[in-house]
Amino acid sequence: MKKAYRVKKSSEIERIIKNKQSRGNSYFVIYKKKNHENIHFRFAVSVSKKYGNAVERNKIKRQIREIISKIEIIKEYDVFIVIKVKAKSLEFNDIKENIESLIKKQNISR
């Protein structure tokens, strides 16, 4: 997935969180914000250092990016995904099911 699809600035991430449109479970929280300026959707992923070392954190971020690339998300949205420490016990298919269900609950997939 291209880097143009990522939200990078912390000020933009704060705006997404302040919008207060979120859904979550015990493993992930997904925030959304409508942004009409975009020509495609953008997203950001956050993992706490409590999750594990850099290798583990980067692995879960790669997995999330792969899952997001397979889902058709409506182009007007910015999405912020927070990964909780409990997600460490999940396998890839479980992560995929959780992310897909939260995105459907947020009504941002086609």
What does this 3D model show about the protein?
The model has no long low-confidence stretch (mean pLDDT 88). This protein has one domain: 2-Layer Sandwich (Ribosomal Protein S5, domain 2). The chain is an alpha+beta fold. β1 (22-24) and β2 form a beta hairpin. It has helices at residues 10-18, 54-70, 92-105, and strands at 22-24, 28-34, 42-47, 77-83. The longest helix has 17 residues, at 54-70. It is globular, with a radius of gyration of 13 Å. Strands 1-2-4-3 form a 4-stranded mixed β-sheet, sandwiched between helices.
**Strand arrangement in the largest pleated sheet:** 1-2-4-3
Cα distance, first to last residue? Answer: 18 Å
Question: What is the chain-wise order of helices and strands?
Answer: HEEEHEH
Strand content: 15-25%
Rg from alpha-carbon coordinates: 13 Å
**Unreliable residue runs:** none
Q: Kindly name the structural category.
A: alpha+beta
Global geometry: globular
Assign the CATH class: Alpha Beta
Number of helices: 3
The CATH topology turns out to be Ribosomal Protein S5, domain 2
**Helix residue percentage:** 25-40%
Largest sheet data:
4 strands, mixed
Structure summary, number of beta strands: 4
Q: Which architecture name does CATH use?
A: 2-Layer Sandwich
Summarize the structure.
This protein is α+β, with helices and mostly antiparallel strands. It contains 3 helices and 4 strands.
